[in-house]
């Protein structure tokens, strides 16, 4: 999103702009009201939110807001105010603002205010989109409206043919009856109380979306306008209802949300086709859609339907939902879990047949019940099930946990940005010792972050969060700079630098590495890049090409954490490394774990046959050092020889 921020105080403006940059893709800054009005007039088409101070020279915040409102009545405006400016509150309300921020700014206040304002923006957009869609639909279907009339008591006195067609009832069955004959049980009583209050007590037009049930039990949705017809004395003579069938444009997701809104206490089960992305890769789009439709049509038969599920909601991308009012399903979570286990067993035996395609479906399930964000809970449950390779997850309350995690992530990102701005991303260096001479021949560069309170943090506390934001590349560049500078401080010793797959896949980083290798051409032979083998590799040939480029400049390649996880000998050979760093989990247990010892011996034997150097990590004692030295490991790294320190 794009923010227009207006503040006349340079110090406050600079501080707030830095903070706002965390939340907005683009921040346009104005120094007073007049500049703000000009900037908005020039760029209003791309501005999503305006944040403005009140007290400013040339044009104050109130005048600015009034100027903006002449151009756009909908753009979100937030007032950034000091406490002593509370006398402007009435004027800002009249000018039409969407939120307030108090000086001095803090992250929690900003997040809460932005959350509320963005919700308003989203609702305005959704409402505008729905109104536009329904308007077009009305124009197209104007000649096929569903019309009825009723007396002041709500008894039907007239229906047209379209009413009969959609409801399935004849005119004789409808006339003389209440509209309750087509009322769907999912519609809450409160909705009809509001309807009658509007048309009977207030004698105003009522409009809304109504969910109805046809004679055969089918559900249909109509956009309804009910107009009270008044006699000269102002009394209701009759009601005319004009409806348009919008069932076709109501997505399953919308219908599911309508159900959950009308039934605030519900059981919700989400079912996700497992490995859906693989399904998409194997079959063309048309075949995938046919498979999804065929499976969706049979899910009711596969689900042990002891609670009376009436339909399956297809939410696209292999995701389906069952929903039922809690009054009809009073089962415990253990009972629901047992039913889903039977459902999974039924699915396992079921084969989808579409044309000449046969596909074995496997699914995972998430379920929850309650009144607060149950869809969000269940959706996060599906994500957790995929990540943790579980088949069934009870997901109640997971969205709250995700929200708390998001707040923590924002705090961590702010900490990272502050550290980058204050040059508090630093490098420590741990010695790597030749096992024969016991002399230091290499150092591994290890990143650290110093907080504003002076606390030294290892990558465990910030690097994964950094990978999700825009600061990861900046951290990588800082580490590269620190490591190449260290070459000048410790002549004749190599510096080993960790690089992830994500680093190599970014042109920005590989180009910067190329720049540093050219700049330090005479020292390039003392650079080692440690690569961590990973399943996340998207383009293996890109990684291999990078290795070839840097090795041509004299750089050596090490494979980090070798011996556990995804690392394998075949892939390793294609990398043509110079060094194998044996995973620390094998080394620290080598004295007491025979299996670890045998694995290390195998790695060393393989390395010697391939003319590769080996390094043992986590060498914490003299006994471990002697053992890895006797096995034939070339180098050792660990607290026994030195902790990471700054040069």
Automatic annotation (TrEMBL):
<feature type="domain" description="PAS">
    <location>
        <begin position="140"/>
        <end position="202"/>
    </location>
</feature>
<protein>
    <submittedName>
        <fullName>Cyclic di-GMP phosphodiesterase</fullName>
    </submittedName>
</protein>
<keyword id="KW-0597">Phosphoprotein</keyword>
<dbReference type="InterPro" id="IPR001633">
    <property type="entry name" value="EAL_dom"/>
</dbReference>
<dbReference type="Pfam" id="PF00072">
    <property type="entry name" value="Response_reg"/>
</dbReference>
<feature type="domain" description="Response regulatory">
    <location>
        <begin position="2"/>
        <end position="118"/>
    </location>
</feature>
<dbReference type="InterPro" id="IPR000014">
    <property type="entry name" value="PAS"/>
</dbReference>
<dbReference type="InterPro" id="IPR035965">
    <property type="entry name" value="PAS-like_dom_sf"/>
</dbReference>
<dbReference type="InterPro" id="IPR001610">
    <property type="entry name" value="PAC"/>
</dbReference>
<dbReference type="GO" id="GO:0000160">
    <property type="term" value="P:phosphorelay signal transduction system"/>
</dbReference>
<feature type="domain" description="EAL">
    <location>
        <begin position="409"/>
        <end position="647"/>
    </location>
</feature>
<dbReference type="InterPro" id="IPR013655">
    <property type="entry name" value="PAS_fold_3"/>
</dbReference>
<dbReference type="InterPro" id="IPR050706">
    <property type="entry name" value="Cyclic-di-GMP_PDE-like"/>
</dbReference>
<dbReference type="InterPro" id="IPR011006">
    <property type="entry name" value="CheY-like_superfamily"/>
</dbReference>
<dbReference type="InterPro" id="IPR001789">
    <property type="entry name" value="Sig_transdc_resp-reg_receiver"/>
</dbReference>
<dbReference type="Pfam" id="PF00563">
    <property type="entry name" value="EAL"/>
</dbReference>
<dbReference type="GO" id="GO:0071111">
    <property type="term" value="F:cyclic-guanylate-specific phosphodiesterase activity"/>
</dbReference>
<dbReference type="InterPro" id="IPR035919">
    <property type="entry name" value="EAL_sf"/>
</dbReference>
<dbReference type="InterPro" id="IPR000700">
    <property type="entry name" value="PAS-assoc_C"/>
</dbReference>
<feature type="modified residue" description="4-aspartylphosphate">
    <location>
        <position position="53"/>
    </location>
</feature>
<dbReference type="Pfam" id="PF08447">
    <property type="entry name" value="PAS_3"/>
</dbReference>
<feature type="domain" description="PAC">
    <location>
        <begin position="204"/>
        <end position="258"/>
    </location>
</feature>
């Amino acid at each position: 999103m794009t923010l227009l921020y207006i503040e006349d105080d340079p110090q406050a403006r600079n501080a707030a702009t830095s903070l706002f940059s965390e939340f907005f893709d683009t921040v346009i800054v104005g120094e007073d009201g007049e500049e703000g009005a000009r900037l908005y007039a020039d760029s209003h088409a791309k501005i999503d939110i305006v944040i403005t101070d009140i007290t400013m020279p040339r044009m104050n915040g109130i005048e600015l807001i009034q100027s903006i409102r002449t151009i756009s009545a909908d753009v979100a405006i937030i007032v950034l105010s000091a406490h002593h400016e509370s006398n402007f509150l009435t004027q800002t309300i009249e000018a039409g603002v969407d939120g307030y921020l108090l000086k001095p700014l803090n992250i929690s206040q900003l997040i809460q205010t932005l959350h509320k304002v963005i919700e308003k923006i989203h609702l305005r957009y959704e409402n505008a989109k729905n109104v536009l869609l329904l308007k077009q639909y009305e124009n197209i279907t104007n000649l096929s409206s569903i019309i009825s009339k009723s007396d002041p008591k709500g008894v039907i006195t007239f229906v047209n043919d379209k009413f009969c067609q959609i409801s399935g009832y004849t005119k004789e069955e409808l006339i003389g009856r209440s509209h309750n004959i087509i009322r769907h049980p999912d519609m809450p009583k409160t909705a009809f109380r509001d309807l009658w209050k509007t048309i009977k007590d207030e004698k105003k037009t009522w409009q809304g979306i109504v969910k109805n049930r046809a004679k055969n039990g089918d559900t249909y949705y109509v956009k309804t306008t009910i107009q009270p017809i008044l006699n000269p004395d102002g009394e209701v003579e009759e009601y005319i209802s004009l409806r348009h069938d919008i069932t076709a444009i109501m997505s399953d997701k919308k219908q599911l949300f309508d159900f959950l809104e009308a039934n605030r206490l519900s059981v919700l089960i989400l079912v996700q086709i497992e490995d859906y992305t693989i399904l998409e890769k194997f079959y063309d789009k048309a075949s995938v859609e046919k498979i999804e439709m065929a499976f969706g049509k049979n899910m009711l038969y596969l689900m042990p339907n002891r609670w009376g599920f009436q339909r399956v909601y297809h939410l696209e991308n292999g995701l389906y939902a069952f929903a039922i009012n809690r009054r009809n399903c009073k089962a415990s979570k253990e009972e629901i879990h047992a039913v889903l286990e039977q459902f999974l067993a039924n699915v396992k035996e079921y084969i989808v047949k579409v044309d000449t395609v046969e596909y074995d479906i496997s699914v995972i399930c998430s379920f929850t019940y309650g009144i607060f964000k149950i869809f969000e809970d269940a959706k996060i449950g599906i994500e957790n099930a995929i990540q943790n390779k579980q088949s069934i997850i009870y997901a109640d309350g997971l969205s709250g946990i995700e929200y708390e995690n998001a707040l923590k992530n924002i705090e961590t990102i702010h900490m990272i940005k502050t550290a980058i701005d204050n040059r508090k991303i630093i490098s420590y260096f741990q010695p790597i010792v030749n096992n024969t001479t016991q002399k230091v021949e290499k150092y591994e560069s290890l990143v650290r972050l110093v907080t504003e309170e002076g606390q030294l943090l290892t990558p465990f506390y910030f690097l994964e969060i950094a990978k999700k934001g825009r600061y990861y590349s900046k951290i990588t560049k800082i580490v590269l700079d620190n490591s190449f500078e260290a070459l000048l401080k410790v002549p004749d010793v190599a510096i080993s630098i960790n690089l992830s797959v994500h680093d190599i896949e970014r042109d920005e980083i590989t180009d910067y590495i190329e720049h540093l290798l050219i700049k330090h051409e005479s020292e390039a032979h003392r650079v080692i890049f440690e690569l961590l083998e990973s399943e996340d590799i998207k383009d293996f040939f890109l990684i291999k090409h990078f290795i070839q480029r840097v090795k041509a400049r004299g750089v050596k390649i090490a494979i980090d954490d070798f011996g556990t996880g995804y690392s394998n000998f075949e892939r390793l050979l294609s990398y043509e490394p110079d060094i194998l760093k044996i995973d620390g989990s094998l080394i620290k247990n080598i004295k007491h774990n025979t299996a670890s010892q045998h694995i290390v011996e195998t790695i060393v034997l393989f390395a010697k046959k391939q003319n590769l150097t080996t390094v043992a990590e986590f060498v914490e004692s003299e006994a471990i050092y002697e053992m890895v030295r006797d096995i034939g490991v070339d180098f050792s790294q660990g607290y026994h020889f030195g902790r990471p320190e700054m040069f």
